[in-house]
Amino acid sequence: MRDSKQARLDLLDTLAAADLVQLVARHRIQRLQGLMAGFTMKAEAGTALARRVLKKELQSVVSAYFGGDWLAVLDYLQASPHPDEEILTALPEPRLYVGTAAQTADMAAEVGIAEGEVQAMLAAFLGGGSSVSPVQERAAALHDWWAGFDHAHAVQSRGMPSLWGLVDQDLMVLSRTERGFTPRLYRQRLPSEVLELVGRLWETVTLQRHPGSIVSNPRPHQTMAEALGPAVEFWHGVGLTAWFVCEGPYSRTTLDQVDRYYSRPLAALRAAGCPVDAAFFRELRAAEQSLGPEKEITESQDSTVETSHGQVTITSSVSRSSRREGFERVRDLITRYRRAWAEQHFGAFVEHRWRSELEEVAHQYHRVVAAKGRPPTLPQFARFATTAANHWTGTVRIICTGAPVDVSAVLLGRNGKVRNDHDLVFYNHPHHDGVRVGGDTVTADLNLIPDDITSIAVIVSIDLEAQPTTVFDQHTQWHADITQSSGTQLAFVPGPFSSGETVTIAVELYRRTNSWKVRGVGQGYNTGLAGLATDYGINVEA
Questions:
Q1: Between β-strands 405-412 and 424-425, what pairing exists: parallel, antiparallel or unpaired?
Q2: Range(s) for CATH 2.60.60.30 in the chain?
Q3: Domain spanning 394-536 has what CATH number?
Q4: Rounded CA gap, 222 and 385, in Å?
């Protein structure tokens, strides 16, 4: 250990005594020799393709010394581009299909069709049961959440518990060795409809290491808060600071230092074009000066001791912090500026958040395509898309070629049977107990599924009225696209059908402990809907 430490000290002395310009030049030569060797190894007809040369260890060399420009590398090596080389000077501009639902009336008038038809086409394009995009739905939910959040801070008063836990944030430190979740105060202080909305829209996530799976989100309110980022970090933080400065037990900073303490989220808000008015901090400093004097908060405890002379009561008092009069004045000041900021900036800020995250995903996608000549695999895509997907984007969609099909869903109990005939959800009974069918899409709101339902089967059947002799075979095939609120999409392609099947169970959503999972089934029936109805206990005579 001592020799190793001495060796490091000797190396530092050697570097300090060396000519740094010469040292850097030698390092550059060494790295470029590796690049030239890689180019020579892959060169054909005097040149080489960039994607064959630039393996991981050489990509940093090109970035450091050539700004990532492959043409500059070729010029340095005095080589011509390979005939098959594709050099992109600019990545395609991202196109985000968000907000189109508001344009359906104009679209319908322009092409001369009913607005309802345009909405149906838009819903089919988005892969859900509504023409409102998942991003729009979540952006609207954030406005509702902010209204509840603002009200909770505006009515906070002395004698109430602090608002620590109104926002579900990172783990809190309980002691040097113990950590725990922030208290989930939002369950008591936010409206029930807001709680339901957040729980539904952010109920599942995808994990970067397992992009092919969708899992239940144990903390949907934290994921939602992350989508709002610096806005909630600052405004919730300054509200808590005011409370703890005035009501104790202690505060991480003072009111005259909040602009420094929250400099990171404030800088992010400025970068988004949604700055906090500088006058707020001047008024906050003045408000702190007008607070009452500090008063100790003491905790007293009485203990009774029996003595030979009778009982003796001992009172012990411990000062644990201090408080200052004037919280309501500071609260009202913060409320006034928070509401002014929200009125001016909140809508634009939310759009900035989803647009910047989704455009960054699109940018990274195009970079991969440009570098490798093909789209990224699912694991590769998950590396840069998981966070945005979990923030902003639950359906099963059936795609069939060769024949028209009907899509339906069946709600099943523990015995694998329906409770009654209403548990069959189809085009004549399109929604029931959290499950909705629309066109080729089944949408399941898992928060609304009754506790006695343990699985939901998605059914695909050939429309025999349209094509009475058609069966599923090599010419008539389907596949299922499964999407959850995280935006992650799974696909299931069944094996070939060869026994005259006209009805199939496509996929199944099922409960496992406290979460929901999905699996592909692909079981066919050559006895039609009657055979499936018998298995599920559906009364086809009704």
A1: antiparallel
A2: 394-536
A3: 2.60.60.30
A4: 18
